[in-house]
Design brief:
about 325 residues, alpha/beta, 3-stranded mixed beta sheet, 10 helices, about 50% helix
């Protein structure tokens, strides 16, 4: 096998990391690179391990999504399942497995294959607080499943697998869903997408809080994915933010102007990221020295960052 290449890429999450803290983007894209190799430096290994870290809210979202997609597949197969079925067969085993992996610490030797929760790693979650957190997560997941069955399934239950887009996700291994735009690899992973005639319908599952403006911007990238990768017409793209916990849906289409604004945001962000590369060369994709990637302007945000332990000596020195 040839040596893996760290290709320049862009996504909304990468853009958010870069805007909030340049150093966080450095750790997540460059500092961690090669950290899986036995000959990697301690810093590489540490940043790679921290890059794989999860948090309990992310875990909750994964569990809810796994459960509702199982419900949908069961429905497509002609089987009726309940909230309790989805919780006991899919969501609860997933949460139990991940939580156990985190507490047992197998991720120390294999961070890619075992879950590590930030609350366990930084010892901010334990005792009665942890018990209450698990109870709240379980209740929210079950509420998401209930709202999906009652309010979303009637709208998507008639879709058959032949209409669905096959979307490459991280769980499948290999490279995840992306498209190439202006020579840049753009990561874009819709939760659920299908065709009805010439129409493309894209749904995004949200198990957490309503953030309408942020989520509409995220789905505008999915619209560009449908146009570039699947030849869809903008007029025929229908977008839905499914707020599962609240049982609400935000259906919308985007205009040509809004699509151009998304393209501009993306191009501007790519340009700013390029300034942190040696010779501004995206093909080589070699980062400037770590010290050139500034720490967050608000140090209070650092305590919530996966890479806090790597930056702590520098933060302490500043104080």
């Amino acid at each position: 096998m040839g040596q893996l290449k760290n290709t320049f890429s862009w996504s909304f999450s990468a853009s958010e990391d870069f805007e909030q803290c340049r150093r966080r983007r450095y750790w997540g894209k460059y500092g961690m690179w090669g950290g899986w190799d036995r000959n990697a430096t301690p810093e590489q290994k540490a940043s790679y391990r921290l890059n794989k870290m999860d948090n309990r809210w992310g875990l909750m979202g994964q569990a809810a999504e796994n459960a509702i997609m199982w419900v949908l597949k069961q429905h497509q197969a002609g089987k009726t399942v309940s909230v309790d079925d989805a919780w006991k067969n899919i969501a609860r085993p997933f949460m139990t497995k991940k939580w156990t992996e985190s507490t047992e610490g197998n991720w120390r030797n294999s961070p890619k294959h075992y879950c590590c929760l930030r609350g366990h790693y930084y010892k901010t979650l334990g005792g009665d607080e942890e018990k209450e957190a698990k109870r709240q997560l379980a209740a929210q997941i079950q509420n998401c499943i209930a709202n999906f069955i009652e309010k979303v399934l009637p709208r998507v239950g008639s879709i058959n697998p032949a209409q669905e887009f096959q979307i490459a996700t991280p769980e499948q291994g290999g490279d995840v869903e992306h498209f190439i735009y202006e020579g840049v690899k753009i990561y874009s992973i819709p939760d659920y997408a299908y065709k009805i005639g010439d129409e493309v319908h894209i749904h995004d599952w949200k198990a957490g809080k309503i953030k309408a403006d942020q989520h509409k911007l995220q789905l505008s990238l999915y619209a560009l994915w449908a146009i570039v990768k699947h030849g869809a017409s903008l007029d025929n793209i229908f977008l839905y933010v499914e707020y599962l916990n609240e049982g609400q849906v935000l259906p919308f289409q985007i205009t040509e102007q809004e699509l151009e604004e998304t393209k501009t945001l993306m191009s501007d962000s790519v340009g700013e990221m390029t300034e942190y590369l040696v010779d501004h060369d995206r093909e080589k994709n070699e980062p400037l020295p770590k010290e050139e990637w500034e720490l967050a302007l608000d140090p209070a945000s650092c305590g919530q960052c996966n890479y806090y332990e790597l930056c702590k000596p520098e933060l302490d020195a500043q104080e």
